[in-house]
């Protein structure tokens, strides 16, 4: 079973807009949601599912809004949450920013979208590109006798319209890997994982079939190839256009793509990643009147690669003042509202080592022992490089008119949740 009603509330819990799909839950039940949420928050027992009597509230928060689905039955919770997140995605595609103001400014479109996204509590058309074909942001003129359902809604390939034409047929493939890393004060890696996504930008005419080949270990084992340069993908999640039965049989990623931008797949790798940017820090105190922080950053990736837009956030005592900086490269600035020093390095080649020294004045009272020290966090982006070694081996494009199309591939590694604790 699925949702009975969906509500969009402001920060105070006041309903901005709602849609009753089944009529089996009293719409006034939503008044209990906010007091229940605040009570659970005070108790430190807040959960994504709240219950009042026989009614269950499944909720998510986005910007300054709460999206809440109510149900009486034992609903399929993961389906409801997927729907709420998908609704956020669709509204964001329509209004750029989804917040209270954009809901108030677009009541009519929001109602229309809620009608199309769900029917009798079950998700229906949730692809924003298809919805934009018949729910437009311009006022519709009434044309009698011309009412028709867009063919894509009743089509087997509901995510792509027919009759698309381009002068130049191209596919752009982005392989983006985020590195999540947590290193303790002794330098041991506590957590390391790679979260990857493959995004496509498709400019192809007609109804093409695409086949994507990766250096997937399971595929290499099935075909008896050398496994050395293959990658074992976990938690693989595909866009709805991928033929899953085909993938299960012979690991072929075969699909008719939507037009324009979309995320084809995501994956995860639980591998021991060598920290790409290694940070060492030394904090020295001088008779409680000043503190000196020395930070050393080293690029531990291939020399031919370069990390761009590196940002190293070094926490400092909350009562520090009168900062002075000296850096061997880049620039440093103090953000007193966040109690951090941000060291920016525009370009950081592999194998290089850089230093930053920061001097701060301190009041005579020592607070550091009480405060504890947050970890140093690092942001970066390394183009033309993947940590896992994943490779796009081929992209075949088959279309009945037989045109030639160019696939372009780009690899990017970036920081996810990348933190190093300090002693």
UniProtKB/TrEMBL annotation:
| One GO cellular component term noted in the UniProt record for this chain | clathrin adaptor complex
Q: What is its main location?
A: membrane
| Topology in membrane | Peripheral membrane protein
Which family is annotated?
Belongs to the adaptor complexes medium subunit family.
* Subunit comment: Adaptor protein complex 1 (AP-1) is a heterotetramer composed of two large adaptins (gamma-type subunit AP1G1 and beta-type subunit AP1B1), a medium adaptin (mu-type subunit AP1M1 or AP1M2) and a small adaptin (sigma-type subunit AP1S1 or AP1S2 or AP1S3). Interacts with P2X4.
Gene3D superfamilies under this entry? 3.30.450.60, Mu homology domain, subdomain B
Q: Name one GO biological process term.
A: vesicle-mediated transport
Give the function comment from the record.
Subunit of clathrin-associated adaptor protein complex 1 that plays a role in protein sorting in the trans-Golgi network (TGN) and endosomes. The AP complexes mediate the recruitment of clathrin to membranes and the recognition of sorting signals within the cytosolic tails of transmembrane cargo molecules.
MHD domain residues: 168-421
Keywords (A to Z) from UniProt: Cytoplasmic vesicle, Golgi apparatus, Membrane, Phosphoprotein, Protein transport, Transport
Q: Could you tell me what this protein is called?
A: AP-1 complex subunit mu-2
Taxonomic lineage of this organism? Eukaryota, Metazoa, Chordata, Craniata, Vertebrata
Subcellular localization: Cytoplasmic vesicle, Clathrin-coated vesicle membrane; Golgi apparatus
UniProt source species: Phascolarctos cinereus
């Amino acid at each position: 079973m699925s949702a009975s009603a969906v509500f969009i509330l402001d920060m105070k819990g006041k309903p901005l807009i709602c849609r009753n799909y089944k009529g089996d839950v009293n719409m006034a039940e939503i008044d209990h949601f906010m007091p229940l949420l605040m009570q659970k928050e005070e108790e430190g027992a807040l959960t994504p599912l709240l219950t009042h009597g026989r009614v269950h509230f499944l909720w998510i928060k986005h910007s300054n809004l709460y999206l809440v689905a109510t149900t009486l039955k034992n609903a399929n919770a993961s389906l409801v949450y997927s729907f709420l997140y998908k609704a956020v995605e669709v509204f964001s595609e329509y209004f750029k920013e989804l917040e209270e103001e954009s809901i108030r400014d677009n009541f009519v479109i929001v109602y229309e979208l809620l009608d199309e996204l769900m029917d009798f509590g079950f998700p229906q058309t949730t692809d924003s590109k298809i919805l934009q074909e018949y729910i437009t942001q311009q006022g519709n003129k009434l044309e009698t006798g011309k009412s028709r359902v867009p063919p894509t809604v009743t089509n087997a390939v509901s995510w792509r319209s027919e009759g698309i034409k381009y002068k130049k047929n191209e596919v752009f493939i982005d392989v983006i890997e985020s590195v999540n890393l947590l290193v303790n004060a002794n330098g041991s890696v506590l957590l390391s994982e790679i979260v990857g996504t493959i995004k496509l930008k498709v400019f192809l005419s007609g109804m093409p079939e695409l086949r994507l080949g990766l250096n997937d270990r399971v595929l290499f084992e099935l075909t008896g190839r050398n496994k050395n340069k293959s990658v074992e993908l976990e938690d693989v999640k595909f866009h709805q256009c991928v033929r899953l039965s085909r993938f299960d049989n012979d690991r072929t990623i075969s699909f008719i793509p939507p037009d324009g931008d979309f995320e084809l797949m995501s994956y995860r790798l639980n591998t021991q990643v060598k920290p790409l940017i290694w940070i060492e820090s030394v904090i020295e105190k001088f008779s409680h009147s000043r503190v000196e922080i020395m930070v050393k950053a080293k690029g531990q990736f291939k020399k031919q690669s370069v990390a761009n837009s590196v940002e190293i956030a070094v926490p400092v005592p909350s009562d520090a003042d009168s900062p002075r900086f000296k850096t061997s490269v880049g620039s440093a600035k103090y953000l007193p509202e966040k109690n951090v020093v941000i060291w920016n390095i525009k370009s950081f080649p592999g194998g290089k080592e850089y230093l930053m020294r920061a001097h701060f004045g301190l009041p005579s009272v020592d607070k550091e022992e009480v405060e504890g020290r947050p970890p140093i966090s690092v942001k970066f982006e390394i183009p033309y490089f993947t940590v896992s070694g994943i490779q796009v081996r081929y992209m075949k494009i088959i279309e009945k008119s037989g045109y030639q199309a160019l696939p372009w591939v780009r690899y990017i590694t970036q920081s996810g949740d990348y933190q190093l604790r300090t002693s």
